[in-house]
Write a structure and sequence with these properties.
With 345 residues, the protein is of the alpha/beta class. It is built from 16 helices and 10 strands. The protein folds into 2 domains: 88 residues, Arc Repressor Mutant, subunit A (Orthogonal Bundle); 222 residues, 3-Layer(aba) Sandwich (Rossmann fold), CATH 3.40.50. One of its GO terms (molecular function) is O-methyltransferase activity.
Length: 345
């Protein structure tokens, strides 16, 4: 058989080989995306079209090199090339613009930090030992406060990771019988804001670390929720505020290894009244709808924090150690599940 006489099976094998090579080279596309975000190309092009010459000149970059990067990302839908060497934003590129809802630029910037690259490069060691890059969780690159000029940057990055989640939780759960919603580790309050706006009868309390709490208070007051939402600084490893009808742990538990996660959950159990509920929102491993998002988050957490995405069975076992029980599970789009938790009998 000659090369011209290849069979469908041979073609499938060749296609698979090319796909494997594309995955192996994915860090080049990732790095290219980091660079165009740092250069602000999405805001530079906006709704218009610019030639590669104009883009390179405005960003003080080499024209030929810029053309290569733009075309690399055009394959992925970040840019389109409607005319020779002329570029506009593709659908993915629009998500990188400043001020856009669910904007992803901050998340891209966070993943481009040197510590995150080092954590990814340490995957082999994490695979061997099961441990993250650094021994101290509070020094790990995903949560280094000094990696960002302000706490808002970290909150914006997390919003990019969790695009669509806030509205999904607000619309996807019955808050009608609640009065006070307490968001544990609530960052700057984007989730709590969505819930309070969707349910005007609710009051909120945001609980986060002292460096973040003042930022959250200022932001919630600025969006007109200061009279309905209090803010309290503290450490959820020590205690959490009492009195809530609903407690939220959104993308918190998966950040931590088992022993730390149980400490957080145990502190929640101590203040959970008989009719109160705890809502855990995060990707669930094994959920086919959210599997792509969950596996990415899982790899990041494995190398950077020591946490990871858990199966429903693993969540149930974790909750049992803290005197809690999983009652219901609801999908929130393709990025997470909402797990309703109550005090165990």
């Amino acid at each position: 058989m000659t090369d011209q006489d290849s069979s469908p099976q041979d073609d499938a094998v060749a296609e698979a080989a090319l796909r494997v090579v594309e995955i192996a080279g994915g860090h080049y596309a990732a790095r290219a995306l980091h660079l165009v975000v740092d250069l602000g190309l999405a805001d530079m092009i906006a709704d218009g079209r610019l030639s590669c010459v104009e883009i390179a000149a405005a960003s003080a970059m080499d024209e030929r090199a810029m053309l290569r990067i733009l075309r690399l990302l055009a394959v992925h839908g970040v840019f389109v090339e409607p005319a020779e060497r002329v570029f506009a934003l593709g659908a993915l590129g629009q998500a990188l613009r400043a001020g856009r809802k669910h904007g992803a630029a901050a998340a891209v910037r966070m993943l481009s930090r040197s510590g995150m690259w080092e954590a990814a490069g340490n995957l082999g060691e994490s695979l061997r030992t099961g441990q993250p890059m650094l021994e101290s969780r509070r020094q790990r690159p995903l949560y280094q406060a000094n990696s960002f000029a302000r706490a808002e940057a970290l909150a914006a990055a997390m919003a990019g990771f969790h695009a669509g989640m806030h509205a999904g939780v607000a619309a996807g759960y019955d808050f009608s019988n609640a009065g006070l919603v307490v968001d544990i580790g609530g960052s700057t309050g984007l989730l709590l804001e969505a819930i309070l706006r969707a349910h005007p009868h609710l009051r909120g309390l945001l609980f986060d670390r002292p460096p973040t709490a003042p930022v959250a208070k200022e932001r919630l007051e600025a969006v007109g929720l200061g009279d309905r939402c209090g803010v309290l600084g503290g450490d959820f490893f020590q205690s959490v505020p009492a009195g809530g009808d609903i407690y939220l742990l959104a993308h918190v538990i998966h950040d931590w290894p088992e022993s730390d996660a149980v400490r957080i959950l145990t502190n929640c159990r101590r203040v959970l009244a008989s009719e109160a509920r705890l809502l855990i929102v995060e990707p669930v491993s094994g959920d086919s709808v959210a599997e792509l998002h969950a596996t990415l988050i899982d790899a990041i957490l494995m190398s950077a924090t020591g946490g990871g995405c858990r199966t429903l069975q693993e969540h149930s076992a974790l909750l049992a150690q803290a005197g809690l029980a999983l009652r219901t599970v609801s999908p929130i789009g393709r990025i997470a599940s909402l797990m309703e938790v109550v005090a165990a009998d």
